[in-house]
Structures are given as structure tokens and as C-alpha cells.
Write a structure and sequence with these properties.
With 550 residues, the protein is mainly beta. The protein is built from one helix and 51 strands. It has a 17-stranded mixed beta sheet that branches. A seven-stranded mixed beta sheet has the order 2-11-10-8-5-6-7, with no helix packed on it. The longest helix has 5 residues. Strand 3 and strand 4 form a beta hairpin. Helices cover 1% and strands 49% of the residues. The N terminus is likely disordered.
């Protein structure tokens, strides 16, 4: 999975007025440190949140970048006397939708002229408070969690107290992109599902996954949650996400590098983009459930497919194995090629095998997508393969092969005894219909001491009787480069039959498409061995008539 992130600053400014009389220097000079009870009220001139944008807390605004107060929101202010008797007391302020203070409970008065340190906390989670110094917010799917803090020092000389709150949490915003983004039903972020409230910051408590809220913002949709700013004494990093499908199953993903807030202060917003692709296949896996899968990276065992409705994308995949690279044991799967860096190499069998009675379709978005497949000697790049038991060779039949809108290279390796084409039937085995549609194909047949395979076709030589040539259909402006094995001395078809040195078989047409096969509106370049220069070039018209180019 590839991801990116951007950072913004959360900020708010909401004013609330609450004006009462305060003590004066002249009055205090006449009374000493103690003040008459009920005469000098503690008052507040404003309740605001640091910054300039309206991002206070409770109800998200239209684009999800801020929020507004809701009438009845309450904030708790705790006072501690710095000296003297260390007297302490609490005041709860209630604001309206505009942030104005509408009640103060209780109405307290300065008991003396000393300094008091105050700490304030606001939390929008119903039923949560500083009880036990913990706030829990593991599920934010119905609304974001907000914790705001304030602190300062005041006494009766201060007059009206201006409270400035700041956000204690950071916001994480996720944007989903990619082919499977619409399949995501919900998103969670790993962080702290609870925080401990300290005097000037919050600290992560219990770690887990937080359910995020789906938030429309203009033409976009985001998933959001507010998370702890601090883990221990360090900023809380953000890296792990969990994406849930509609059936409740999930896939975990991790950012290439964690987001580090770089500060114990909250009030920041981090935007993450997650490219949602198909499920990544594990090495050696057997795919049986219908769905979309992706192979990316290096594989030492390859995969097996057995089932219908399976779509396997190769996206930067490298398979190097002694077995079958992609083994289609049943069903009619599609192998989608994405990008130019995809290779399948088998040192002991076929690169891609499809069971008899099944069809594999190998396709790309366009001919710019590329795949290179190599089979071991005696086995095809794409097609059948050889089995040796106690020195006895046998060959496994294969099904239908369709190659469409892709650039594909398929080769069988050279060996000592038997040969197979790049695409088709291994040895004396059989193969279904081979269709090349709007594609560019390079097909290299294998070469042995006395036998030579075509680029596409049958592996058994003509001398064994009359082996069945696969039906080959080439159409829709396809370009085929067919490399027959051997040398110019010993002949074999470029497409069609194999040959050997015993009968010196010389093909009449050089391209034999089998029963019902043809090439139309396409070009076939014919090579011998590994030559870079074609022996001939055949251009086929819409009627399947091939003309050799001079």
C-alpha cells in the first residue's frame, strides 16, 4: 500500500462575555489579605480558543475542518491557592451556541488577596469528566471526541479572567482512493482509546483502534478521529489503520513512515491518503474465493487458483520458483497485468498452467502493460508441463489461453531431450484454444539436441504421427513475434508443429493455426532460434490471407 500526508493546524476563536464587579487596589489596601465573603466575585470576561479559525469542539461544520459550540456546553475550572492555606475550589461555566457564558455555578468570591493557579477542561463526550482523570473515546463513528484545556494564574487584582482554551487532541483525516475504495465500509486508526487528563496536557492511556467518523466535505468524503497528542512523555505517532469491508472482515495497513506530531501540544490536523487496492496475495496461497487479488513484490512459491470469479492483478510481481508460477487448477480466472515490471520464471515446470477444461485470460489496460513468463525445458512458458517419474516423461494437458491488450513474452527453455513451445502444449500433451486479441506477443520455442518447438503450438514433433495442433486465433491488429527452436538446417513451424532431425520436417505454410484457427488483421514476424532478424514477415488481411512482405 502507497500513502501520503499533509499537515494543518486546528484552531478556534469563540467569545463569551460574563462581567461582574471586581476588587480594586484601594479597597484591598484597607482590609489586609482576607476579603469579606460575598463581596469580590470571581468573574470571566471571555472564553476563547487559541487561534483564528472556528474549530472549537462539538458539532462539525459543513466541510469537517471545524466545529461550533452547542448551547449547554460546560467547562470546568479548578482553582488552587498558590500559598497560604492552599484552598481550592471549582467553577463550572455553561455557554450558549454563540459561546456566551449563560451560567456560572457556583458563583464564588475571592476569599483573599493571594494568587491562584487555575486549570480548565472541556470534554464533549456525554458522561465523561475528569473523574479518575480519564476520558474514553474508542468509538468516534457518530461524533468526534474533543478535549480542550486552559491554565493560568489570577487573583482579585486580575479583574475579569480571560480564559483561553487550546485543543488537547490532534485530528486525523483519511482520504480513500484507488480501485477498491468504494468497498470500504468503515475505517479505524490505531492510537489511544482513552487519555489521562493532566493539568496542562493529556496523556495516552489504553492503546487500541478508534472507529473513525465518515465526514462529507464538499465533493470529497473523509474518515476522521481525534487522537491523543502524547504517549508517555513523547508525541503519539500515527501509523496504523484498519479498513473494514461490508461483511465485517478487515485489512490492516501501515504508513511507510509514521506521522510524528513533533509536539506534546494538540490542535493539529493530519491528512492521510490511502490507496485501496485488491487484497495482496501471500506466497504459496491457494485462491478459492471469488474476488480481486493482487500479487506485488517477490514470490518463491507462486500461487494456485481454483474457483470462478477470481481476478488476480500482477503489479510489480516477481515469481521465481521451481514449481508452477501461477497454477490454474480450475475455474476461469483473469490475470490482469499492471505496469512493466512483472516476471514469472519456473526452473522446473510451466510459468503459467491452466487445467484442461478451464480458460485463463491474461490482459492489461493496454499494450503498455508487460509480462514476461519463462518455463523450464520440456514445459511451456504458458501452457502444459512435463512430469518425470523414474526417468519416464509424461505431459499434462492444458486448457484455453486468451491473451488480450497486453505485451507478453512467453518462452520455453532449451534442454537435452524434449521441447515445448513458448505457448501451447508441452511435449506430446494437448492444449485448448489459444487466442491473441489486440496484443503484442513474443513466443520462444525450446530447442533440444534433436527436437525443435514452434513459438506457439504443439510440443510433439511431426514424426510421431500427426499430433494435434492447438487452434490458434490471432486477431484485432495483434503483432506476434514467433521464434522457432533449432537452426535453419532442421525445420519446424513458427506457429504449429514441432520438428526433429529424423524427418527433416519442413512446414509448408510456416504458420499452421490448427483446426478452425486463423490470423486476421494482424502481423506475424518469423524467427529461427534467437536471431534478432526475422526470416520473414507475414501480414494477414481481414480474410486471413497472409502475404509475405518483401
Amino acid at each position: 500500500m502507497i500513502m501520503s500526508k499533509t499537515r494543518y493546524i486546528l484552531s478556534v476563536c469563540v467569545l463569551a462575555a460574563f462581567a461582574l464587579a471586581s476588587c480594586t487596589q484601594d479597597e484591598l489596601a484597607e482590609q489586609g489579605t482576607a476579603l469579606p465573603e460575598g463581596k469580590y466575585p470571581i468573574t470571566f470576561s471571555a472564553v476563547q480558543v487559541a487561534g483564528a479559525e472556528p474549530q472549537t469542539r462539538v458539532s462539525e461544520n459543513a466541510d469537517g475542518t471545524g466545529s461550533v459550540w452547542t448551547e449547554g456546553d460546560k467547562m470546568e475550572i479548578h482553582f488552587n491557592e498558590e500559598f497560604g492555606d492552599f484552598e481550592s475550589f471549582d467553577i463550572t461555566l455553561t455557554v450558549d451556541a454563540d459561546g456566551n457564558v449563560i451560567t456560572q455555578s457556583p458563583q464564588l468570591y475571592w476569599p483573599n488577596t493571594g494568587n491562584y493557579t487555575y486549570y480548565g477542561m472541556y470534554c464533549n463526550i456525554e458522561g465523561e469528566s475528569t473523574t479518575g482523570n480519564t476520558v474514553t473515546f474508542g468509538d468516534q463513528s457518530q461524533g468526534l471526541a474533543y478535549v480542550l484545556l486552559t491554565s493560568g494564574s489570577a487573583n482579585c487584582h486580575s479583574g475579569n479572567i480571560a480564559l483561553t482554551f487550546r485543543h488537547a487532541l490532534n485530528k486525523v483525516r483519511v482520504k480513500l482512493e484507488g480501485e477498491k475504495a468504494d468497498d470500504v465500509a468503515s475505517v479505524s486508526v490505531k492510537n489511544y482509546t482513552s487519555v489521562n487528563i493532566l493539568s496542562t496536557f493529556v496523556q495516552g492511556g489504553t492503546e487500541g483502534y478508534i472507529k473513525m467518523r465518515e465526514v462529507p466535505s464538499g465533493d470529497e468524503t473523509y474518515w476522521e478521529a481525534n487522537v491523543a497528542a502524547v504517549a508517555g512523555t513523547y508525541p503519539a505517532q500515527i501509523q496504523d489503520f484498519r479498513l473494514f469491508r461490508g461483511d465485517g472482515t478487515s485489512v490492516d495497513c501501515k504508513l511507510d513512515a509514521p506521522i510524528d506530531p513533533n509536539s506534546i501540544d494538540g490542535g493539529q490536523m493530519f491528512t492521510v491518503t490511502i490507496n485501496v487496492k485488491s487484497a495482496v496475495v501471500q506466497d504459496g496461497a491457494t485462491l478459492t474465493e471469488a474476488g480481486d487479488y493482487t500479487m506485488s513484490g517477490t514470490y518463491a512459491q507462486g500461487v494456485s487458483i481454483k474457483g470462478d470469479g477470481i481476478n488476480l492483478t500482477l503489479d510489480g510481481a516477481t515469481i521465481n520458483t521451481s514449481g508452477i508460477g501461477i497454477n490454474v487448477q480450475g475455474g476461469n480466472p483473469t490475470i490482469k497485468v499492471s505496469g512493466t515490471e512483472n516476471t514469472i520464471t519456473s526452473t522446473g515446470s510451466a510459468g503459467i498452467y491452466v487445467a484442461q477444461g478451464s480458460t485463463v485470460t491474461i490482459t492489461g489496460e493496454s499494450r503498455d502493460d508487460q509480462l514476461t513468463v519463462t518455463g523450464a525445458y520440456g514445459s511451456c512458458g504458458i501452457g502444459g508441463y512435463e512430469i518425470i517419474n523414474d526417468g519416464v516423461r509424461s505431459y499434462v494437458n492444458c486448457g484455453n489461453i486468451t491473451i488480450r491488450q497486453v505485451t507478453l513474452s512467453a518462452s520455453s527453455s532449451n534442454g537435452q531431450w524434449t521441447v515445448s513451445p513458448g505457448i501451447g502444449a508441452a511435449g506430446s500433451g494437448s492444449c485448448g484454444i489459444i487466442t491473441i486479441d489486440d496484443a503484442i506477443v513474443y513466443a520462444h520455442g525450446g530447442s533440444a539436441q534433436y527436437q525443435y518447438a514452434p513459438g506457439i503450438g504443439a510440443g510433439a514433433p511431426y514424426s510421431i504421427g500427426t499430433p494435434v495442433i492447438p487452434t490458434v486465433v490471432i486477431e484485432n491488429n495483434s503483432i506476434v513475434h514467433a521464434y522457432r527452436g533449432g537452426t535453419s538446417q532442421y525445420k519446424t513451424d513458427y506457429i504449429g508443429w514441432s520438428g526433429d532431425s529424423m524427418d527433416m520436417y519442413d512446414a509448408n505454410s510456416t504458420c499452421n493455426f490448427g483446426t478452425g484457427g486463423s490470423a486476421k488483421n494482424s502481423t506475424v514476424y518469423c524467427y529461427t532460434g534467437n536471431s534478432d532478424t526475422p526470416d520473414k514477415t507475414l501480414v494477414y488481411d481481414e480474410n486471413g490471407v497472409g502475404t509475405e512482405q518483401q
